């Protein structure tokens, strides 16, 4: 019987690769000498104290932050810089944009376009970025709205929806692009406790029914344990330890992981 922690179906193909990554904000070095890979179809959760650099990692993959050192590869292609004769050479905006279409992100604060309806939010990028027809994009959007239980809200404006509903729309919007990689940045942290479960259940279903690679930052340790193939514990911008969730949550090697988990569990 397969379990969520079995190896990812296509393990062996790195879909995200960090090589010697450094990220500094001014003099504040947030990430240093960071190396890790995420395989195709793998779901990896980043845990660790606030300020340890987890969200910054997701924002670097989404190219929302400037990479100040090292390299990030998506499907083996450089995302921001390539190495040429030992020097970092920026990739073109066009190349970067092409890679970015493979990546979707769901944010803590939903970030829906407030001036558009729910349906318009979902079809915008498939039409304008992927060049899909309006009919095709609309049909897919309705399918996705059904999946997230919001078929009746297609013509609503985001501001008329609850936080949980807005986040379900944001998940539908990200999935409408058929992303290879889905980045989830504390997607339930801004929600009322009673709607956290419904959002996590939708994401559990996405995890069970698709092969999308996921990089997740969450404080929901039960969810992390259920859906992750791998958990990476961060502290001070470095990986303290990583492994399957049953190992990290039940029998962590490092004192810092034990201290973190005893504070949050
Ligand atoms: P985490 O997600 O683990 O809580 P973050 O990645 O949000 O950590 O933040 C890591 C560090 O980077 C923190 O010290 C934070 O203050 C700093 N940081 C994040 N974003 C910015 C920014 N836009 N400008 C300056 N410092 C930032």
UniProtKB/TrEMBL annotation:
Subcellular localization, as worded in the UniProt entry: Cell membrane
Pfam families hit by this protein: ABC_tran
Provenance organism: Nesterenkonia aerolata
Membrane topology: Peripheral membrane protein
Protein family (similarity comment): Belongs to the ABC transporter superfamily.
UniProt-listed SUPFAM superfamilies: P-loop containing nucleoside triphosphate hydrolases
Protein name: Ectoine/hydroxyectoine ABC transporter ATP-binding protein EhuA
Domain (ABC transporter) ranges: 16-261
Principal location class: membrane
Keyword Ion transport in record: no
Any one GO MF annotation of this record: ATP binding
Keywords: Amino-acid transport, ATP-binding, Cell membrane, Membrane, Nucleotide-binding, Transport
């Amino acid at each position: 019987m397969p379990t969520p922690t079995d190896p990812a179906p296509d393990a062996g193909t790195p879909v995200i690769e960090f090589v010697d990554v450094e990220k500094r904000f001014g003099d504040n070095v947030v990430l240093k000498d960071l190396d890790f890979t995420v395989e195709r179809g793998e779901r990896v959760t980043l845990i660790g104290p606030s300020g340890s650099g987890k969200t910054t990692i997701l924002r670097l993959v989404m190219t929302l932050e400037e990479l100040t050192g090292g390299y990030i590869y998506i499907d083996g292609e450089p995302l921001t810089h390539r190495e040429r004769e030992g020097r970092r050479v920026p990739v073109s905006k066009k190349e970067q944009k092409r890679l970015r279409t493979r990546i979707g992100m769901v944010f803590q604060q939903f970030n829906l376009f407030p001036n558009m309806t729910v349906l318009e939010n979902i079809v915008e990028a498939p039409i304008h970025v992927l060049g899909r027809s309006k009919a095709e994009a609309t049909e897919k959007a309705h399918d996705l709205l059904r999946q997230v239980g919001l078929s009746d809200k297609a013509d609503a404006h985001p501001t008329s929806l609850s936080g949980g509903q807005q986040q379900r729309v944001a998940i539908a919007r990200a999935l409408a692009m058929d992303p290879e990689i889905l980045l989830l940045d504390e997607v339930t942290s801004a929600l009322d406790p009673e709607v956290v479960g419904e959002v996590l259940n939708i994401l559990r279903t996405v995890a069970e029914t698709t092969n999308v690679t996921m990089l997740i930052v969450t404080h929901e340790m039960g969810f992390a344990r259920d859906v992750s193939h791998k958990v990476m514990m961060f502290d001070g911008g470095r990986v303290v330890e990583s492994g399957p969730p049953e190992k990290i949550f039940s029998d962590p090697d490092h004192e810092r992981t034990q201290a973190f988990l005893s504070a949050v569990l």
